[in-house]
Each structure stands twice: as structure tokens, then as C-alpha cells.
Design goal:
The structure is a homodimer. With about 400 residues, chain A is of the alpha/beta class. In chain A, about 45% of the residues lie in helices and about 15% in strands. Chains A and B meet through helix 1, helix 2, helix 4, helix 5 and helix 8 of A and helix 1, helix 2, helix 4, helix 5 and helix 8 of B.
């Protein structure tokens, strides 16, 4: 029996990360592969109290269907979170989604006809690329430097392509590069989107996890015409297992997201929404985020130092000022997928970088996560990885 | 500013039920509109214990990312539920989804190119129709009687249309009609799907909520070639607010669903999956389902009796042997949308039937739910509704 699938299924690939995660669940593996928060920092005891409170007070509401747009007290709390990134919205501008991943899927569902163009950073988040692929877009990658997309390249792409539907950006501690856009580029991005009448999808899971300096205004802060769609999530500042994120957008646009949500899964979990709202009411999440930042900063520092000491000097990597990732660039002749196989033999995992480029290439790159492993494992893992890198470079050079 | 949306957005309509639900949240409204379980039967105390147990024992796992396919102990429990409808599967044949609604969305995402045909019962579940519409299918409605689709009509549709991708059916206590397929039709459905090489999407949220007679084997029980995709959910036998459902399908097909899931939202809530698995381990869900059946049966009996007494004799309605709904057919000249407005003035709500027909028409029908209102309100609501119906019929006749 061979069933006939839709054409779009030819484009969708299994996420390399999700597949890797299965391998890396072996406890002996030191994994820099996932984008997993540190589980030892989850507020488990607080969550237990919050759940008991929700069930005692509103048990039958918590277990029942709720509105598609989401639980109002949670949307009110999200308004406060949006203020942290300098965005002024009301609860009516918010739709709750199942993680920000669902916001990515909906963005393409709403805007993309087959053959339409999505402009994205090069590299970009592979989970977004995979979600978008289901709607058969073409990707145009825009080169980036330490301040964000190169604006001349972006304008050229906008000027020369009629069917660009949106620009997808992760301006803060980008996944996978760890880099952050300057405020000038953020402003200019909105100007260009206005000029060429395209939407901007701003994916911001890490903005509040800044270890150095001040939190920057989101791109949406500079939005003058309601064309920036902001995707937020509790996965990185709270817990990912709950699958609660949100979309903040202008009412006309948000209405489309609401329609997509109705069809996709009716609504996100009522009880999870109520629990998070209750947590935000009962506890100080700022304090919790401070704790995360202290630990993640320490791990970043340790990984940076270990990489400097253990990696061959030809290997370059970014210095993230927040978030979860650093991005490693090997000499051009090296292949990170081959290195990944050798590293796994030493029980060390990372994600080869090629998958983060929708149009391929760049096989000499990889992404390394520092939030999920403890200090000892970071040092040991980078040491082993350094050894694999040196051996491979030495082999390549003598062949 | 006017952004350019994808063509598919022209097809998607707001769910009439979801919009109605907002109106019917006023406490004075007697609502037969939603498909909501009785909240007073939710096992709130048990759920509290289950949650505490999960957080005490596996708190950090419960709040962390988990695998896309879902939590293994839950999938093992679902294997047992599938046995209840006479389907023999392994945990590897199961993918956890965010309610069965997500399984509907994925079914169309996986199979439908614009213009492909979905065969469905006439009427069919409007949430499915809306989910499917996003992928721009054409719908062919197949007439049904008290035993399911008319098989001659189904075969004619299959024989005369090349691009049929799947047949969508709700064989048990159908939403909206309340009717149930005979075993003969189930077998014949599979034979025809085999003959014409199409998939079957079997949506089965109510199969275990049978008040009379024995649970029938699911269509998937008769599946000889792995072409039946079974969608199940805990929404109706447990609690809908958790948004946990599943897809059971042959491995090749399930792999496509897994890819769709990765892109759509990575995975369903880890903690909700663990809580349900723990509930199934700690408590007897059969006992819980028995409780539901006693209450729902009583409410159905009461609604049937009240309709017989209060509705004009020209009004026909189905007698459901399980599930949540009865289906009301008014005389041809009457319009249920007009009646709905008048009924709402009397604080009574139902869903006009037209939306359940993807190709329109049948405005003289409506769906009435009996699971969500208590006995007193059912009697009072049907009484008021009977009065509105009589007044409208009388007016129409004298105009």
C-alpha cells in the first residue's frame, strides 16, 4: 500500500535536533545539542503549590475547554512581560499558543503561498525553517554580522523580489549564532518592512536572558504600522514542558492567528495557562530569571574559557551576551557532521550547522548549547571535543 | 497597511461554535451549543493527587521538553484504550497530539494539495471541516442514514473522482448527528478504501461513551492494509482542558504525522501527558467512564422526553445511543439561524446546522448537546426552545 501524500510533505525533513535528542538521552552523553533549559532550576515546589491552588479554587474551569485566544489573567500578565522588552500592548493583542513554535507554524500558514519568499538570517533557527517548509516557501538568506542582518543586502532582496511575505528574525541571542541585533538595525528593519509592505516575524524566546548590559527594545517596539508579529514563550524563562507561548500582533493580523489556532488545536491547555498565571501572581518571576541568568552566565563563561583553551586556534566561535548558544566556525575544509559522529563516539553531542541554512552549505559550522549541562560536564565535554577537533585537523592536514 | 495573506486564509472561517461559546458564557444562558463535558464530573481531587505525585517523583522531567512522539507510559496506556474499541496496536503506533483536533489538522496537512477531494459524512463535524479548509480541499458530502454513509453513494464518489485523498468519518455517536455506523458498513468502508487506494480518517472521541448495547469495533479494527488513521482523545472520557489526544496509524503514515507535529509545536505538554498516565495508573478510569455514562444517559433521556413533549410534531430529532449530541431537523421552510437568534433572546443556545455541511444548505437543522447542562436546565431550556419553535412555525404559517 502506498498512499498519496501532499506535495508539501516532500519538503519537510525530520529535525536534526529532535533526532539527535533521542541519541543524547543516554546519561553518559555530554550534550551541547539541545536548546534545553537547566532542569535543576525549574521551580518544582512552587509549581506544586500553584497547581494545588488552581485546582482547589477553579478545578472545574481548569480542566474544561476555554477560549481560543487564551486565559485572560495570563494575557494580562504577558502584557507586563512585553513591557520588559519595551512593547506596549493590551491583552486583546495577545493570543496564547502551544510554545512559540506554534506561532512559527501559524506565521507561514497565514502568509505563505507555494513559491512565496521568506527572508531570514543566515543562519536561522532550524525549527522555524522546518515549520515554514510545510507551506512551500522559497528562502532567501540575508548575511548577518555582529549587529544583525546586513541592511544593504536586505534592501536589495526586498527591491528585487515581489513575493516576499515576511522577514523572519531572532534579534536577541539568536538561535543558532548567539548574536544580537543593534538598535539601529532594528529601527532600519522596520523602515524597510514599511517601505516594501512586508510583515516581520520577530521570534524572541531569549530576550530576557541577558547576562551583560541592558535588555534591548524588541523590534516590535519600533513598529509604526502594526506589521511586526512578536512571538514569545515561557519555555526559556520558566519551563518548556508546559508548551505555553504567545503571539503579540495588531488586531487584524492577530485575528488570522486566532483562526489558525481554532483549526489547529482549538486552544492551548487551560490548566497550564492558569498555572502559569497563578505562578506569576504568587511568585516573583524576575527573581527566578535572575537565578537562571547567574547559572547560565557562569556556564557561558566556562564554555568560552574551555573553548579558548581546548579548541585549535583556527576554530572561531561567537561570544553570546545572553541566551543559550554559541556558534562555532571550523576551517572551511572541515565537515561538522563528520566531527559530530566522532564526537558521539566520545559521548559528546552538538548540532552540525548545515541544517540552520535553508539553502544548504556551511557544513563547517556547529551550534553548542551551554544551558543544559553542569559546569563539570561543560569542561569535560569541550575538552573531549577539542581533542576530536585537533585529531581531525591533524589528519586532514597530513592526508 | 494591508498585508498580503496566503490564499488559504480566504477559506477559513471562524468556528460558529467557538464564537457562540463566548456568548453562552453568560451564566443565565442555557447552552446546548458546545460539546462540553459535564465539569462537575471532572476528577479534580484525584487530579490534584496525581499532579503532586508526578511533581514529587519526576518534577524536572515533567517540566522539561520531551520526545515528539509522546510520553511512553502514556502511549502504553493508550494501547489498552485502543483494545476497548477492538484495535490491536503497540506504543510505536501511537503519536500524542494536542487533542484530536490536531490530528484533524495534520490529516489534511499530510494528504491534501489544493483541489484534492475529502469525502465526508453529510453532515460532518464543523471543527474538522474548518481545519481541513486551510489546505484548500474540495469536499464531497456522502449521504448518511442510521447505519452510516450510503455505500453506493460512497463507491460512486470514489469511482468518479481521481483525486480523493481520504474519507473522513466519525462512526460512533457522530458529531453532529448522534448516529452510529453498523459493523457491516464499517467493513465495507475499509473494502472500498482498499479498492480505490485512499486513506480513512476515523475520528473517535465518543466511542466509549455508549449508554446502550456493546461498544462496536472501530473502523480501524477492520483495517487490512494500514490505511485507517484513528484519532482518539482524553477530552470526552477524562478532561478536555488538558488538550491531550492521539493518532494511531501504521508506521509509515505515523512518521508523516510525527514530522507534522515537529513543525507544528514540537510536542504536546510533557506534564499533562505524565499526569494522565499517572491517573490511569492510580485510578480506575473505567469506573470514571461509568459515572459519566450514568449522568449523560439520564440527560439524554430527559432531553429526548422534553423534545417529544415540547417540540412541534413536525420537528424530527435523532435518538443517540451514546456521545453528547442529538440532531434536530425542522420543516424545510424554517431557518435555524433565525431560530437561534430568537432562542438567545430567551437565553437558550444551540448550534445551527448549516455549518456542518461543507457545501452549504440544510439551514433547517441544528445540533443540541445534552452533556453540559444539568437536568433542570435541560428541561427548562427545551421548554423555552419548544415555545420559540411553535411561535415561529405559527408565524410562518400565517404569513
Amino acid at each position: 500500500m502506498t498512499l498519496n501524500y501532499a506535495n508539501r510533505m516532500d519538503n519537510i525533513r525530520a529535525s536534526e535536533i529532535r533526532e539527535l535528542l533521542k541519541l543524547t538521552q543516554r546519561p553518559e552523553v555530554i550534550s551541547f545539542a539541545g536548546g534545553l533549559p537547566a532542569p535543576e532550576l525549574f521551580p518544582v515546589e512552587e509549581y506544586k503549590k500553584v497547581t494545588a491552588e488552581v485546582l482547589d479554587k477553579d478545578g472545574t474551569i481548569a480542566l474544561q475547554y476555554g477560549p481560543t485566544e487564551g486565559y485572560l489573567p495570563l494575557r494580562e500578565q504577558i502584557v507586563k512581560r512585553m513591557a520588559k522588552v519595551h512593547v506596549n500592548v493590551t491583552p486583546d493583542d495577545i493570543l496564547i499558543t502551544s510554545g512559540s513554535q506554534q506561532g512559527l507554524d501559524f506565521s507561514a500558514k497565514i502568509f505563505i503561498n507555494p513559491g512565496d519568499i521568506i527572508l531570514c538570517e543566515s543562519p536561522s533557527y532550524l525549527g522555524a525553517i522546518n515549520a515554514f517548509r510545510a507551506y512551500e516557501p522559497n528562502f532567501l538568506e540575508i548575511d548577518t554580522d555582529d549587529e544583525g542582518m546586513i541592511m544593504e543586502d536586505l534592501e536589495e532582496a526586498l527591491a528585487n523580489n515581489e513575493n516576499v511575505k515576511f522577514i523572519y528574525v531572532i534579534p536577541d541571542f539568536q538561535n543558532p549564532s548567539g548574536r544580537t541585533w543593534s538598535t539601529e538595525r532594528r529601527k532600519r528593519l522596520v523602515e524597510l518592512a514599511n517601505k516594501y509592505n512586508v510583515a516581520i516575524v520577530e521570534d524572541n524566546p531569549y530576550g530576557e536572558l541577558r547576562f551583560e548590559g541592558e535588555i534591548l527594545p524588541a523590534v516590535k517596539h519600533y513598529d509604526t504600522e502594526g506589521r511586526v508579529i512578536f512571538l514569545g514563550t515561557f519555555s526559556k524563562i520558566f519551563c518548556p514542558g508546559l508548551r505555553v507561548g504567545w503571539v503579540a500582533a495588531e488586531k487584524g493580523v492577530l485575528n488570522k492567528f486566532n483562526l489558525a489556532k481554532q483549526g489547529a488545536d482549538l486552544q492551548s491547555s487551560t490548566i497550564s495557562q492558569m498555572e502559569i498565571a497563578k505562578f506569576l501572581e504568587m511568585y516573583d518571576i524576575e527573581e527566578h530569571i535572575e537565578k537562571l541568568k547567574v547559572v547560565y552566565k557562569k556556564r557561558r563563561d566556562l564554555m568560552m574559557k574551555a573553548m579558548e583553551e581546548e579548541f585549535p586556534k583556527e576554530v572561531k566561535f561567537t561570544y553570546p551576551k545572553g541566551g543559550l548558544f554559541t556558534w562555532v566556525v571550523l576551517p572551511e575544509h572541515m565537515n561538522a557532521r563528520e566531527i559530530a559522529v566522532k564526537a558521539l563516539e566520545q559521548n559528546v553531542a552538538f548540532v552540525p550547522g548545515g541544517s540552520f541554512f535553508p539553502n544548504g552549505g556551511h557544513e563547517n559550522t556547529f551550534r553548542a548549547n551551554y544551558s543544559n549541562m553542569n559546569e563539570e560536564r561543560i569542561v569535560e565535554g569541550i575538552k573531549r571535543l577539542g581533542k576530536v577537533l585537533k585529531e581531525t585537523m591533524y589528519l586532514k592536514e597530513t592526508v
